[in-house]
Amino acid sequence: MSDISASAVSAPRRLHDPAILIPLGLAALYVIWGSTYLGIRFALESYPPFLLAGVRFLVAGLVLYGFLRWRGRAAPTRLQWRNAAFTGVLLLGFGNGLVCFAEQRVSSGIAAVAVASMPLFAAIFSGIYGLWPTRRESLGLMIGFVGVIVLNLGSGLSGSRIGALALLTAAMCWAFGSVWSKHQEMPPGPMNTAAQMLCASVALLATGFGSGERLPAQPSLHATLALVYLAVFGSLIAFSAYLYVLKHARPALATSYAYVNPPMAVLFGLLLASEHVGPYDLAGMAVILLGVGVITLARQRKAA
């Protein structure tokens, strides 16, 4: 009887064990976020970019916030709301909104490759808190930014300078928001996800309606299903996983999805949307990922 009771008690504990949740969270980031770039492209067939992102995060945020409050979770404090608003606007407002904007002009795979430069910017922004890049990390930064230059020489981004600028700005905002949030008092657990999505949705909807965007009267089923996928999987599941891994693992591990998302996104684009990827695009992706890898290995050695 005692053995049964002990196993029953240990099972819930295992469900909350970071040793289990971190690998599951990383798997969600690798596969789901790798596919969301193509999901955005499909949704843009009917929905304008900023309203697309705004509706996505509004729906996901309301569902998650309502569920958490129903389960008795405390609402964020005023300070936590402020921090969540700032972080959410950076990560989701600029980070995701500009990706949606850029994907009107570039392919989903190329968008993912450009956003892969995020850990490079994160390494620089960490210097604000005294974590300046080491010599090896500086080498990784130089390699990575060479990759960004090569990527901009390819047909995927060279044809749209506005798209390229939007994607690099998105990567910088996501990086700064990720670094900044780790040093602030944020809402606990999944309430952090809900608060950030709600705050970002307000900024995105205001931007969309303010710039003249309008929701479609008769969106296609294809685009609407893509929007639902983005809200449920890309927002509720994957973003929650990212915030959990960011809190419980080293930043280098939390941002390791940057290795996997670009090739996953390129693969999804090739198989499901017949997207074209040129030699410069592939070379730029390889060099960017090499730079990210050098930074990650350098930080792992320093932590050891």
What keyword list fits this structure?
mainly alpha; 304 residues; globular; disordered N terminus; single chain
Describe this structure in words.
- This protein has 304 residues and is mainly alpha-helical.
- The protein has one domain.
- It has helices at 2-15, 18-43, 49-70, 78-102, 108-115, 118-125, 135-153, 155-158, 161-181, 190-210, 221-248, 251-254, 257-273, 279-303.
- Helix 3 (49-70) runs antiparallel to helix 10 (190-210) and helix 3 packs across helix 11.
- The longest helix has 28 residues, at 221-248.
Rounded mean pLDDT is: 82
Looking at the structure, what is the overall shape? globular
Number of helices: 14
Strand content: under 5%
Helix content percent band = over 70%
Count of separate structural domains: 1
| Largest sheet: number of strands, sense, barrel closure | none
What structural category arises from helix and sheet content?
mainly alpha
Q: What's the N-to-C terminus distance?
A: 43 Å
Write the layout of secondary structure elements.
Blueprint: H1 2-15, H2 18-43, H3 49-70, H4 78-102, H5 108-115, H6 118-125, H7 135-153, H8 155-158, H9 161-181, H10 190-210, H11 221-248, H12 251-254, H13 257-273, H14 279-303
Helix pairs in contact: 2-5, 2-11, 2-13, 3-4, 3-10, 3-11, 4-9, 4-10, 5-13, 6-7, 6-9, 7-14, 10-11, 13-14
